[in-house]
Design a protein that fits this description.
- It is built from eleven helices and twelve strands.
- It is an alpha/beta fold.
- It folds into two domains: 263 residues, Aldolase class I (TIM Barrel, Alpha-Beta Barrel); 66 residues, Alpha-Beta Complex (Type Iii Antifreeze Protein Isoform Hplc 12), CATH 3.90.1210.
- The strands form three sheets. Strands 5-4-3-10-9-8-7-6 form an eight-stranded parallel β-sheet. Strands 1-2 form a two-stranded antiparallel ribbon. A two-stranded antiparallel ribbon has the order 11-12.
- The longest helix has 18 residues.
- The model has no long low-confidence stretch (mean pLDDT 95).
Length: 351
């Protein structure tokens, strides 16, 4: 199974697809947003992802229970204030798409309401990403799916039935191109809670390409996810955590993003093929495996015994498993010490 985004195939038979999530780490500066796209391209990421919303399309300007954040990274702020700061202005989008095109890196976004879907569709965004908090918004998912672009859905906090509803909604819209990202919506996520074993379950349960949207610190969880079949890795990034920003605390810096790209692709290469036996790097060492050698001179007609035949290195003689058949039989010719034992040296041919 594979899915293509901007002609790049994604699936188990292809290198992991790395999405660098800009989020609000542009800090309200379009030049910084350009620099983030540059940094992602230079790090070797496949795509940069934006988030397309305004404070008014994602919430309302209101204070009270649920609207004021009481715990976590953004404690003390209202949702409206947070989203006012973190949003990517819509009038930046055309320039950001054009800059990404010049840099040879794919750009797409997460829409948070139908107007954002339509806006991104008109910009010819090559995919839609549905955030974990919106994966239960079936009308939004259906509207995006009907655009016919690949759909990437994060599954943080979602129960199996909720994921099934989201997947069914995409398929009911006639869109078969679904990528599910396992996600834990903790910012940051403790490594002990990341639960990477859910990745192959998502792939098997829903018959989709699966990956990881990773909010842990560092790159270890993302690299480990590849061994469990993750085909996509999404990770927040910034130019420098010291610069501040809404998501900077759990974002990678450019050199760390590069390490992530190298790490996940190396891990994918290391998976290999279970049916392959001898690899090119070890072919020259086959000769050093054990085999049967004559370790004391033997005259024609003398028997082979544990004193004159042993299993030793190198590997040019009979296989060690032949030793029980050889012992007690007689040599058909003189054999010097250090000679690899061959079947034709043994009476009656031991094979």
């Amino acid at each position: 199974m594979s899915i293509a985004i901007a002609t790049r195939p994604i699936g188990p038979d292809h290198p992991p697809y790395v999405i660098a999530e800009m989020s609000g780490n542009h800090n309200g500066d379009i030049q910084r947003a350009f620099a983030l796209i540059d940094a992602a391209a230079e790090a070797g990421a496949d795509a940069v992802k934006l988030q397309t919303y305004t404070a008014d399309t994602i919430t309302i300007d209101h204070h009270g229970p649920g609207f004021d954040i009481e715990d976590g990274l953004w404690k003390g702020r209202s949702l409206y204030e947070l989203y006012q700061e973190a949003h990517t202005p819509w009038d930046w989008h055309p320039a950001l798409f054009e800059h990404a095109k010049k840099r040879g890196i794919t750009l797409f976004s997460s829409p948070f309401d139908p107007t954002a879907v339509d806006f991104l569709h008109n910009l010819d965004a090559p995919a839609f990403k549905i955030a974990s908090f919106e994966v239960i918004d079936l009308p939004l998912i259906g509207h995006a799916a009907r655009c016919g672009r690949p759909m990437i859905l994060s599954t943080g906090m979602a129960a199996e039935a909720e994921i099934a509803e989201a997947v069914d909604t995409v398929r009911a819209a006639g869109n078969p191109d679904i990528i599910l990202l396992h996600c834990v919506s903790g910012y940051p996520t403790p490594a002990a809670e990341i639960n990477l074993r859910r990745i192959p379950w998502l792939a098997d349960r829903f018959g989709v390409v699966a990956g990881l949207s990773d909010h842990t610190m560092g790159t270890t969880a993302s690299v480990a996810a590849i061994a469990l079949g993750a085909c996509v890795i999404e990770k927040h990034f910034t130019l420098a955590r010291a610069d501040g920003g809404p998501d900077c605390a759990f974002s990678l810096e450019p050199h760390e993003l590069r390490d992530l790209v190298v790490g996940v692709r190396t891990a994918w290469e290391a998976l290999g093929d279970p049916k392959t036996c001898v690899k090119p790097s070890e072919e020259g060492n086959i000769q050093f495996r054990r085999s049967l050698y004559v370790v004391a001179d033997i005259a024609a007609g003398e028997p082979f015994t544990p004193a004159n035949v042993r299993s030793i290195r190198p590997g040019f003689g009979l296989a060690p498993k032949e030793l029980p058949r050889v012992l007690g039989k007689r040599a058909v010719c003189d054999v010097k010490r250090g000679t690899p034992l061959k079947a034709e040296m043994v009476e009656g041919d031991c094979r």
